[in-house]
């Protein structure tokens, strides 16, 4: 019992004893709760934050005896000086923290405006996705000892460094499809990685942690590919009767099979095509909106069966709502079993450009010494650009899937009669500007597919300064180099994304008003040197200044 100079009080002693007992009880409860949380398996899900390690001294005072608070109690250090050490964390503890990606303005920026349109059909997504790493393994001689780097890692649930996911989705005909992709496409990718039994590129097969394979467990990759293609053939027909996805080795045989049936390219292709099939068949199972129906005043036509004479009408088979016909995946995010879309049929669609970044070490991809692997999966005319540090040039990673693109014209040559030219000289397929898109139920038979264009780029340390994802409200008005140069002039990716969409909207003089504009700016290792290569941002400055003056001058606007 603690004694003081004041007179002894029995009541005070009893209160103190009860306080000590209550405090121990609370601490014991917290300890048991923490133990239960540690023993509870974590849910596999998408996160809009990333996990990193910070020195404990940034969150709490240094535990050294020479650093006490208040500062008046501190004493000058008089002991022998310690030698230098290569381990930065040898004498300092670390704390795992979660940082919301959209709040990390020095690492990531996002901007989205509706422009001159009545509503916004663009959406975007950013976060970390739960899947094994696919980064290229580094030579042992170029990696640090595990005690120095691996011991301080902030890794994902699989034990690999976190995989970052970024996506831009440009809807047309409404925002139902673009919102579906924003909320669920990453879930399809996660689930496909489980179904295909994807292995980590950084661990040997016998060292990789066992994956639960979703609710049904790991399935045969060849059967998954063949089943999906058969579903497209029987459900849609037309172009898909001879459909041979580029990255499906079970369909193409030896044409493309460098990494077997469970490569990241195959998984992304499967996820995109399955998401598109689910969305399309879900719309086909719904009644056409009265505003869009020609039979609204005809009681005979309005009494006909749902989706009568539609290309996807199968009254005996309900529309697929998730990756497999099985109960909803408990704990997974998003809920792939939830109904898709609203109560009436949506005939529009959406483009999609996604970028996944994986690192071979726990060092984040924006660090100047960190190599990484960038994989882009792209459908439509949204755009992904890299900025090369050495010369400041823009490096396009995607191509616009338009009818005048030679590869697309060749792919759809059997349906050339569906092509037309509008008053501006632009080619269209059944009135659509894009030959690849999600949704667009009326154009599926002629080959408007969501099969993604997949490109893998190895990013050497500080080789690129940043990556930009934009919708056509930006890329349709500004050149690739203009987009890159605008980003160079800003201090942070957050301010760069805002400046980019504002410039695109303010200088757009389209007759129908500026389109929806969306931009994501992601910092890479060469960010601090983004203005050193080539002419910096001066190469397009004169052109951009002219655009701005012209937009601000009311006399220059067409009447």
Output the keywords:
single chain, 559 residues, alpha+beta, Phosphatase 2c, domain 1, 7-stranded antiparallel β-sheet, 16 strands, 17% strand, globular, disordered N terminus, PPM-type phosphatase domain-containing protein, PP2C_BS
Provide a descriptive summary of the structure in words.
Residues 305-317, 540-559 have a biased composition (Basic and acidic residues). Residues 57-90, 284-354, 529-559 are annotated as: Disordered. Keywords: Hydrolase, Metal-binding, Protein phosphatase. It holds the Pfam family PP2C. The chain has 559 residues and is α+β, with helices and mostly antiparallel strands. It contains eleven helices and 16 strands. It has a single domain, classed as 4-Layer Sandwich (Phosphatase 2c, domain 1), CATH 3.60.40.10. Strands 4, 5, 6, 7, 8, 13 and 14 form a seven-stranded antiparallel sheet that branches.
